[in-house]
Amino acid sequence: MSLNTILIQNLHSFLVSILPAAVLIWFIWYLQKKKAEESSKRRGLGRKGKKDHLWLIIKEYLHLNNIHGQRIHSAYAFERPEKEELHEEIKKCEIFKAKAIAKKNKQKYIKEKYPDRFPIEDYFDALEKETAELNKQYISELKHEFKSHRRELIEKNKRGFNKRRRYVIIYRLENPNNNEVSNWYALEAEIFSNYDANSKLKDRVVINKEVDYEKELSWLLPQKLEKEKSKKK
After folding, report:
1. Which long-range contacts (CB under 8 A, 24 or more apart) does 89-95 make?
2. In Å, what is the CA distance from 167 to each residue of 46, 72, 126, 140?
3. pTM to 2 decimals?
4. Measuring CA to CA, how many Å separate 217 from each of 85, 111, 126, 146, 211?
5. Cβ count near 18 (within 10 Å)
6. What is the pLDDT of residues 37-93, one digit of tens each?
């Protein structure tokens, strides 16, 4: 038997002996990788498959406002409806609350006549103008890109270049020393597409300001209850 034959046989025996272990190691690595990908999906804001931005946004806001020693107990994000959609969302919320009260009191729900405009819509109009002023730099950049050679790219977005992506994030904090949970807080964040060819980030997230939680409930209450219900399942 030649030396080459002996070497080939030894190599074959070696590969056969380590192959099951190699397959097992690869399989464990693959399962861990898939688990990590699932656990790192971003919820509510941004693209899937990336680190959860929701909690990072809240932590950044707390840091900017020198709020320390608290941990996030729970948080949800809701896409703010467009101006032309807001009235219907508030109306849906009013109907939702009326039906809930009727059910609680064991009464038949009676349809009500709602105004063409709710007074609280003035608050949201003012908020829209205020945040537009805060972000006029980014909005100006977007308008500039729209007029430039990137116009076709922006127009592919079904929302249109002038449609803002504003989110309301509600959250509660917990004191780690006594486990006391705070009331709900709310803040608004806005996403701007990043058209910088040299940047690896598709979006840039801007924290606009803290907003009135109770007033935000005028349109997001049914969605909040639905998310809380889903979380308990």
Report:
1. 89/219, 89/220, 90/118, 90/120, 90/121, 90/218, 90/219, 91/118, 92/219, 92/222, 93/217, 93/218, 93/219, 93/220, 93/221, 93/222
2. 11, 18, 16, 20
3. 0.69
4. 15, 21, 17, 35, 11
5. 11
6. 443 333 334 443 344 678 889 999 999 899 999 999 999 999 999 999 999 999 999
